[in-house]
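Intended use. Records like the one below are meant for learning the mapping from a protein sequence to its folded structure. Do not use them to infer anything beyond what is encoded.
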Amino acid sequence: MRIVIITAGSRGDVAPFTGLGRRLRDAGHDVALAAHPSFAELIDGCGLALRPVPGDPQQLIRDWARAASREEVQALTRAYADGLADGVADAVAGGADLLLTAFGPSALATAAAEAHGIPVIGTYLTPSFATARFPLPNARDTGQGNLAAGQDVVRRAAGAFAGAVTRLRTRLGLPEAGAEPPVVRPVLHGYSPLVLPRPDDWPSGVEVSGYWWPARPDGWRPPPDLADFLQAGPPPVFLGFGSMLPGEGERLGPLVTEAVRKAGVRAVVQAGWADLGTALGGPDILPIGDVPHDWLFPRTAAVVHHAGAGTTGAALRAGVPAVPVPVMADQPFWAQRLYELGVAPRPVPFQDLTAEALATAITTCLSDPSHRHRAAELAQGIGEEDGAAAVLTEVERLG
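Structure written out for the chain above:
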């Protein structure tokens, strides 16, 4: 079966689908990822085909930060969504028997699937159905409860792509969509039910499958300087903000350097989009580029991260405690969840980040053995799950 996985966004929105795609490929399916060209090396290195989709998420984040008004932000978002719509249409036109789609581009994927008469499965990385049990990521406090706040999240997400969906449906010769966003079924959420159980008020056909772990690129080996650093002393603390904070390295580097010194730890610092390696100092800090989290995190004492869905899962899988420093989007949600699970101290929101606050959080995380104990417990349970198997079962049912 020809399967196209449609996703958009930063590395954390793409990497989990490399592992899922490889699992489907190994089961005999022809798998391609429709994603931004900047992830070509990642996708190719995992032995999967790329169907490029226009857009540069790193530049988009930079442009959002520089925008002078809300109207300018909206215009940037519309242009991004329109390019994504064209890319989805072209990717599916290249041949597909089944679509798997992340939540963001799901309305675009649904339109393309309708036009080509093929089924679609939702493969979402964060909870995306309103529930009374908890507020969805990006929920605003409306004073009306979790369910109403979650419905507002879903409406706003649909609104961000509404114009692009209308134009795509016109291009594909489809009738105008109704007032309600299209319903995708089945939907599988790619995180562990031990981390966030499935609410009992979710509709039928919406499940929590377990994580889909990123594939490790073929032939990958750890950089010699990283291997040497790990062997030269006690396990270091990992610090990284993933795809957040483009261009913030000059400001963050000294802050991270001072926090590491105050906490008295060794540290491995991932440059990421912030380019953190440009302003770090000291013999106990090693700047690194992209390194598979499944290899690195078990070798660390704790993981300081932005609490994106993928990095959150990787740290939990490794059984190490965390220091969440959420920046935006779904990150405050996962950061709070780590605290509630007992694997992390209270989150340090990025806007409140100082060297003193970061050093205190690292010290608190490492000095409380309950964090590591709880992380090890969760890792054992997560290790027994097989989230990709649930997706494969749905794929074969539809095939």
